[in-house]
Structures are given as structure tokens and as C-alpha cells.
Amino acid sequence: MREIRLNAFEMATVGHIQHGMWRHPRDQSSRYAEIGYWTELARLLERGLFDGVFLADVLGIYDVFGGGPEAALREAVQVPLIDPMLTIPAMAAVTEHLGFGVTCTTTYDPPALFARRMSTLDALTGGRIGWNIVTGYLDSAARAMGLAGNVAHDERYDAADEYLDTVYRLWERSWEDGAVLADRERGVFTDPTKVHRVSGVGRYAMEAIHLCAPSPQRTPLLYQAGASTRGRAFAATHAECVFMNGTNRGQVASLVADLRGRASHPLRVFVGATLVIGRTDREAQDKLADYRTYASVDGALAHFSASTGMDFATFELDEPIRHQTTQANQSNVEAITSRSADVWTKRKLIDSFVLGSRHPPIVGSAATVADALEAWVREADVDGFNLSRTVTPECVADVVELLVPELQRRGVYKTAYAAGTLREKLFGHARLPAGHRGRVA
Q1: Element holding 91 (H helix, E strand)
Q2: Please, what are the domains in the chain?
Q3: CB-based contact 75:15 (threshold 8 Å)
Q4: pTM (2 decimals)?
Q5: Measured distance CA(416)–CA(429) in Å, rounded
Q6: pLDDT in tens, 76-122
Q7: Kind of pairing, strands 362-365 and 207-208?
Q8: b/e code 313-322 from CB counts within 10 Å (16+ = b)
Q9: Which candidate, 54, 173, 293, 367, has a CA 20 to 30 Å from the CA of 378?
């Protein structure tokens, strides 16, 4: 059995995946705008030897359900929301090894500005930065950026290929190794012959010298979460770590096999999971029952409507959900239509919202949960899990105090961090691997 990897799946907001949990009296997510909330979380995750905290983000409000933002605002569905990038230096300052995967879109941010921000974070954290590459799926985000609506799904990925090739050139080509001399005697800090102006690719017309000297990883560790057909092609080309959602191990296994077969470089695959852990199975079931009393159906429907681009307020309870081509998250549409053997209805969706989302939790003692995680690794060929929060921080503390020792006892979880950058910890090398598109773009 391979070593199991864990990331905390977080967002700089109150309600992330399991909607309604913010109402629980022990939940502290309403502290999301306090630095102390993030530093306490970072220390706890490092104590549990988590590989990283994976920070989701969106740039618009969820306004598809019912034709407006009311449900999202009322139920705290990823709003209010602060910039996750700005939480990272605080967390890095109180940890030594914890990695940080931050979600940033290719659709709205100029490559040169984005490349500098990521190089800065990689330098300040000593090489602990990962980038979750997204193209954006919300019409509300496009409108917030001054556009009439979202760019077509596959066109966003075509543009993202060019965006990636542009930032690769800034990170990998602009400064040669050894360009920084810091020679006090000769008065030469940088050798000008080893610094080069680079050009953008395709629609990203630019000409620039990257303003940052090479950071420890140069290119941040690359995450991607696209599970649609076009998204998997993109992930196999660019991603080093792939984030997937799914409840059927066989279906996920087929997607993982497809990804690994396409990629020319090693991949780590993380599947989303929600854990409810107790000291016994009975205690865990009691905890689940308690949590369920706070779950929000409207919050879950508001989130899923925006994710799919389909307004579920307009569906009858038993109306079959048919595949629709939208410009939103196509993998979520496919999951309940073309990739599902079952006929989904709004009633079936609501019945699946155990804790205010379509992510059924794994519930039980540490041994029971460990059995389930090992089955996922064995049967779906995944490397680890992005763990979404329920009631925070107790859900993380349960993993650290109950699950991690059980996994260590089984020999499937590290007992200490490896040395080096985030990429070195996961793959054993500091730079993008030879043959990766970023090294040759």
C-alpha cells in the first residue's frame, strides 16, 4: 500500500462545501477574516503532517438558483469571501513544512502580474507554493470583470494552454540559473547576460523580463481539478497533482487510468472526501446526526446550480435531469447525467445532501475510516485525499488526533516530513520534471 497523502480542502469564507455547518455552535468558520483563525489551522495541520492546505476560490457570487444571489447570501454559500492568497504568508510564518495550494484563474489575471505574485509567495515560503489552475465557470465572475458573460468552456481551456505557456516562459526561461551573483566586491548583483526578455504566447501578447529572481521551485507545484473530457486533456498536459470528486471508486478509477495514460510525467491524484470521525462507530454516527440538523438544502442547491449553470429552482421534484451544455463546470453536469447509470432528479439530489452538499461523508471510528481510505487508494489508484471541512476546527482535530495515528500504525502515513520544497516532498525533485511542457514551452 502506498503512503496516503492528505490536504485540507479550505476556502477563505464561512460556507465552503458542507453548507449550513457554520450554524453549529462549535463551528469557528465565522472567524475566517481573522489571521489567528488561519495560523491556528496551519499549526494544527502541520502537527498532523498534512501535505498542504488546498485553498479554493471564486471571483463571483452564486446567483443561478432562483435567478439571483439571495439564497447564497442568506445561507453563506461561499460569500462573504476574502482573497485566499493573503492568508498564506501568515500560515507560512508559523509553519516549516506545510504546503499551500491556491486557486487562481487564467481567464482574468495578466500573466506577468500573476507570475510575479506566485514567485513572491514561493520565495517567501521557501518553496511551499502550489497553484490550482482554474479557468473560471461563473457568469457572475465574468460580469464582475466587465464581460457580458463567461467564455465558452473549451475556449477557456484553449486560452489556458496559451496562458500556461506564457507563465512557463517567465518562470523557467527569463532568468538562468546562476544569474544572481550578489558580488559585493565587483558591485554586480545580477549578471545581465543571464537574464532574458520573453514573449507571450497566442492571445497573451507581451514582452517582459520576469521581475523576480528564480524562486525555490521556479514554477509552483501545479494542481488542476478538471474532470471533463477537455479538462482531463488539460490536466494530463500540465498538472502534477489532480483533484477529483466522485463517490464511485470504479468510475474514479477509470478517470485516473485515463489521466495517467495521457500524462508524460508523474501524477499525484487526490480525491475529495468528507470525514466524520469518532472514537467508536457509534460516536461517529451520533456526531453525524448532530451535524445533519444544521445542513442547508437551499445552500446546497444554490452551490450546485451555480456549479452546473442549471437553475434547480425551476425543476419539479421528480423531473429527470438531462444533460445540458452550459459554460459552467461541465464535470459536475456530466456526473449526474452522461457519467451516471442512475436517473437523477431534484428529489434525488436533495436526498443526497447529507451535510449540505453532494459529497456523502465517510463516517466511523478511525479504524473504519482508515479502511475506507485504503480501499479508495487500492481500488481507484488515488494517492490521497482533499478533506473538506464540516464543523471546524474539530473536524481537523479529529483527523490529527484519531485518524493519523491509526494510519501511522498501519504504515500508510508518514511519521515525519521529508526535507525540501513542496514538489520535493511529493515527487523527490525541486523543479518541473524533464519532459514536462513547462520545461520546453
Answers
A1: helix 88-93
A2: 5-280+362-440 (3.20.20.30)
A3: yes
A4: 0.93
A5: 18
A6: 999 999 999 999 999 999 999 999 999 999 999 999 999 999 999 99
A7: unpaired
A8: bebeeeeebe
A9: 54
